[in-house]
């Protein structure tokens, strides 16, 4: 099943506009190295503007359990998107503590995609297939 997620929101105006579209999820980035990074307070405000029928996703990169707990206890987020090299054990720990939370695993669209899908299959709810980092950096370096 394919789903449509818009991500990287930083304003209520944009969240409200996107919420009018036929999308499945709206995402917010909680990663300090991102130019679209949002604090927990900002995510709480932005995610509160998302209607109930649209999943509210927090994108994190190699978080610790304290970060996950902080996000889930202080915001209306119902989906965590793991965008790093998180272990199966870590994912199971999240699932055990927060059984109602959906977990999406971001994977690079590279030569290891099938191997990585097989590795995480059964432990996450969804996959997002993303551009490999090396391609992204090559592209940015040629702008």
TrEMBL record:
Keywords, alphabetical: Amino-acid biosynthesis, Aromatic amino acid biosynthesis, Isomerase, Tryptophan biosynthesis
Keyword Amino-acid biosynthesis: yes
Transmembrane segments: none
Keyword Nucleotide-binding annotated: no
Catalytic activity as recorded in UniProt: N-(5-phospho-beta-D-ribosyl)anthranilate = 1-(2-carboxyphenylamino)-1-deoxy-D-ribulose 5-phosphate
GO annotation, biological process: L-tryptophan biosynthetic process
CDD domains linked: PRAI (cd00405)
Span of domain N-(5'phosphoribosyl) anthranilate isomerase (PRAI): 5-131
Pfam family, any one: PRAI
GO molecular function: phosphoribosylanthranilate isomerase activity
The protein's enzyme class: isomerase
EC numbers for this chain: 5.3.1.24
Pathway of action: Amino-acid biosynthesis; L-tryptophan biosynthesis; L-tryptophan from chorismate: step 3/5
Family of this protein: Belongs to the TrpF family.
Name of protein: N-(5'-phosphoribosyl)anthranilate isomerase
Gene from which the chain derives: trpF_2
